[in-house]
Amino acid sequence: MIEQPDRIDPGEIYRLVPGERLQIPLYSSYVAAGFPNAAEHYIEKVIDANDLLIHNEEATYFVRVGGDSMSGDRIEPGDILVVDCSVKPTDGRIVVVILNGEHVCKRIHYAGRMVVLLSSNPKYDPIYVHEGEDFRVFGVVTRVIMKTL
Known about the structure:
Layout: E1 13-15, E2 23-27, E3 43-48, H1 49-53, E4 60-64, E5 80-84, E6 94-99, E7 102-111, E8 114-118, E9 127-129, E10 135-145
Antiparallel strand pairs: 1-4, 2-3, 4-5, 5-10, 6-7, 6-10, 7-8, 8-9
Protein name: LexA family protein
Organism: Larkinella bovis
């Protein structure tokens, strides 16, 4: 079994409840990078966060990141991944996989009949998945909600 200090705890995988909506205000102007103009701050409309984050409600999960192996892709511990199980895991995509009973987030690469799971943090070696190992792709990461201070 491959040791993964950055594995995803199964208790940190949350099922989206289809039909539940989270509405947030959308300001009609861009956020200034210079001096603020208070007159520009008014709400244009209310949008639903699900419309921004989710393409397929029935196949979407939220997963909390538990390690730093994907920090080169700006995925940090505590961030939330939006994972769509209906998206095809094509070469180069960031995915959540189940490998030997452990959930991990990696970039998937296909090398012939072998799957290689790549971290974006150079301190982690690639993981080579061989035929016959307990392996499946859980879903493709479609969005990252970054944890802020």
